[in-house]
User: What shape does this take?
Amino acid sequence: MFATKRINFKLAGLAAAMAMGIAASAAAFATDITGAGATFPYAVYTKWAEAYKAATGSNVNYQGIGSSGGIKQIKAKTVDFGGTDAPLSESELDGSGLVQFPAVMGGATIVVNLPGVASGQLKLDGATAAEIFRGAITKWNAPAIAMLNPGVKLPDTAITIVHRSDGSGTTDVVTHYLAKQSVSFMRDVGAGKTVNWPANDIGGKGNPGVAANVQKIVGAIGYVDYADAKKNGLNFVALKNKAGNFVLPNGDTFAAAASGANFKVKGMAPDLLDQAHKNAWPIVTATYILAYEKGGNGAQQKAVVDFFTWSLNNGQKMADDLDFVALPASVVKMVEAEMKNIK
Assistant: This one.
């Protein structure tokens, strides 16, 4: 009996030693990678990174510094992958030796600080929103806003425009939407990661910076990703979509906009703005990963592919939980095929 116990203890000790050895070997082969870029998908990438580390032991460090910063760093070869909400053109990808693919889809929201006006109560159409953001409408009780909001008590409060101070993919998405609604906006402000905002404006760094300024300035209007708006308890604007319906930002209206997306276009970057579906939120975008087509470090390149392959197949529910829109299974297969170009 005692001999049997000694054998069992030895076997248990051997099993424990083997388990520790396997864990140590896995840790030894784990490759850590770094990424930087768009703040829009920061919540998703960090959630994926936590789950991936638990599953594989590999660390993924992503810094939300804005799309322009992510593009700059990936081109400077200081990170293993970059994140951008403003996709690069095919010629820019080829010139920089980069591969681009979508990770998740989500919505940019218009948010306001108007005491006495509940979240979702204020309605705007695209043309009026464009006039506000170009500085042509300066008071909240202006006739153009009042016409869209009968019965809503609008204050005689000055409008303060809050925008990103850094080069931003969220700015790129929102300004391209507004430019579609108004030639005057395109002429005066422009469309891109940085634009010429009017004088009654305040900048904030990253989506969190914009959210913080909207929170503290009465009469403010700004734009942030849906996750930051929810996290900070900001009040949403209901937007009139292309079908003529006023809709609110949420997972269902984002998915409605994404339902007809064609990711077979070059660079895998379809235009998701102002889609025709009756329930579509007008400002929906995909967010993109940039990686080196041919990197100097094969292990790092493989680690990038491994992380995003794992995330796209295991992390889509996490994206849904954070109010992003998961890529359809068919698009995931296309992304996996595109990642084969990463050597």
Notes: The CA atoms of residues 81 and 113 lie 36 Å apart.
